[in-house]
Design goal:
The complex is a heterotrimer of chains A (259), B (170) and C (263). Chain B is an alpha/beta fold and 170 residues long. Chain B contains 2 helices and 8 strands. With 263 residues, chain C is an alpha/beta fold. Chain C has a domain of 178 residues: P-loop containing nucleotide triphosphate hydrolases (Rossmann fold, 3-Layer(aba) Sandwich), CATH 3.40.50.300. Helix content of chain C is 37%, strand content 24%. In chain C, helix 5 packs parallel to helix 6 and helix 6 packs parallel to helix 7. The chains are: A mainly alpha (259), B alpha/beta (170), C alpha/beta (263). At the A-B interface, helix 2, helix 6, helix 7 and helix 8 of A face helix 1 of B.
Amino acid sequence: MNAIQRLGRIGIDFCGHLGVSGLFLCRAVFCRPKLRQAWPLFSYQLYKIGILSLIIILLSALFIGMVVALQGYNTLRKFGAEQELGQLVALSVVRELGPVVAALLFAGRAGSALTAELGLMRATQQIGGMEMMAVDPMWRIVAPRLWAGFIALPILAILFNVVAIMGGHFVGVDWLGVDDGAFWSNMQEAVGFREDIVNGIIKSVVFGFITTWVAVYQGFYSEPNAAGISKATTRTVVFSSLLVLALDFVLTSLMMGGW
Amino acid sequence: MRSKVIEILAGLFMIIGFLALLFLAFKVSGLTRLEQGATYRVTADFEDIGSLKVRAPVQVSGVTVGRVTDIDLDPDTFRARVTMQIDSQYNDLPVDTSASIFTQGILGSNYVALTPGFESEHLRAGSHIETTHSALILENLIGQLLFSLKSDKNKPAGSAAHQQPAPNPA
Amino acid sequence: MNSIVKIQQLCFSVSGRPIFKGIDLEVPYNKIVAIMGPSGTGKTTLLNLIGGRLKPDSGSVFVHNQNVHALSRKELYQLRRRIGVLFQEGALFTDLNVFENVAFPLREHTHLPEDMIQDLVRMQLHAVGLRGAANLKIDELSGGMARRVAMARATVLGPELMLYDEPFTGQDPISRGVLVKLIKELNDALGLTSVLVSHDVPETSLIADYIYILAGGKIIGAGTPQQLLNTDAAQVKQFIHGLPDGPVAFHYPANDYREDLKL
């Protein structure tokens, strides 16, 4: 009986958390900010979340692009199809690797930083203090971070795509001897703007939404002590990553079904 | 922390993202093709369109001049009505141009090939292409082949030379 | 009612555990009232209930004759502008420097021109003795300095009620002296009413006009510092004089000593 009770309790708690996080999201997205002050807050968060993540995103993109080109070349050579390397790299990156890997890295770096920062503000009573000073922390602290995350990840994913393809180009053309013209022209034939690139961007928008929402929610509602913050940070990374991968499957099957 | 530098960097970040998007659009997916620009509508009826799909290319001598936009069934003749949008810059196709459905490569997807005719009048918006050649359906080919093989076998050996069945229309 | 804060029959529990079992409390205008008691009795929770951040299970809290928990969100925010709170950790915003922290309420709630904000902030910092520290970052401040900045920030809008959450805890004697002086002076100079939550008996007795002692979810003693120092009520006496043994026993409940040692 005890195990079933516990399972039931887990289920009920989960629904409760989901409800709280949903309401939290609505309050944060639909709050009325003071526009004059909202822009500097937002751009500062965009800087912290987006620009400071650039290094890890771009370096990872470079390595991934190069590895895909390397592995792809080896396989394509068996069919005498090395000239299709550009197409292979571009499609793999733009459809899947770009949005997904960028989202996972984002969740690990920016998501965990967001959670830790908000958790720390909660622990040092900065959030409570702000509420007591009659300033709604929703628009001042939460909303700028949410919007910065929504916008930063698609941009990071696009940059990831570009750098990965350039990395693939470097390995394929400069190193393995694939023809430069064939690389780009086969790629352009195979990659459709609406079907592949726009779909990839749609994916990264959805991922940005999910990872930022999870990160900000976990931080805002974390227990106000050191152990609570570390638990919340771990939860952010785990939940975001799993959600990104699950949603990737859902989105891919929707998109492959014919848009 | 309301530094101007940070705001400028954030703005730059968004601009660089947008530029990267343009790069992806033009260099990676070759967007400069047909998506926009004026087009005119042309229709053609086929016995069998095979696996032709909407957005398949329409080509003249291998150069893409348009896209298939709609595939319908004519309620009176029960033939497939294919609607195409042809790029306006190719506005001198003769009215007796014929349309055929071919396959890209050996195992590729179907596309519409236009073979220009000889008339002086040109196709315009709303024109209808009269001469069409349907797609090659594998089952029909096999059926015809089997039929011709069977009738070969049934004929006596001597008269095989006189009774070669005519080549089947494509 | 001539009390700025009036609490009636307040009951509050967290996860089934009762924190307050029916408390009555009054804070008269322009007085310094202290709420004291052992750690963990929910003194901070009481401040949160007064500020409307928590809802009681039953009973009511009246501030300025308004029932705090019956107010709409907007009205609650209006009320909060008239209350200043000093948190235990200072709760200064770590991404702003000292000056910006003190200026924060002015920028948020008023439309004063920038030079006026500059003057007001400097005056506030001068009152707490930190005018020269205006450009320091928050993590460069010592604990005592942080609390003083927090006081400057909390009083900059000219509130009528100040809530202090354990202001003396963890401070060295000099800081304590400074804070005691500031709390008393600000209260008198600005015509404030102050509610002090603490368990530092010596400092609090210096400035409080009236003290409530909270233990086990109830008020076990109330009076002026003088009255409480001379009381005979056992629990109150143990707390005020810091006696190691009394109603709050020294030994945690255990078996017989000889049995445990197996003699």
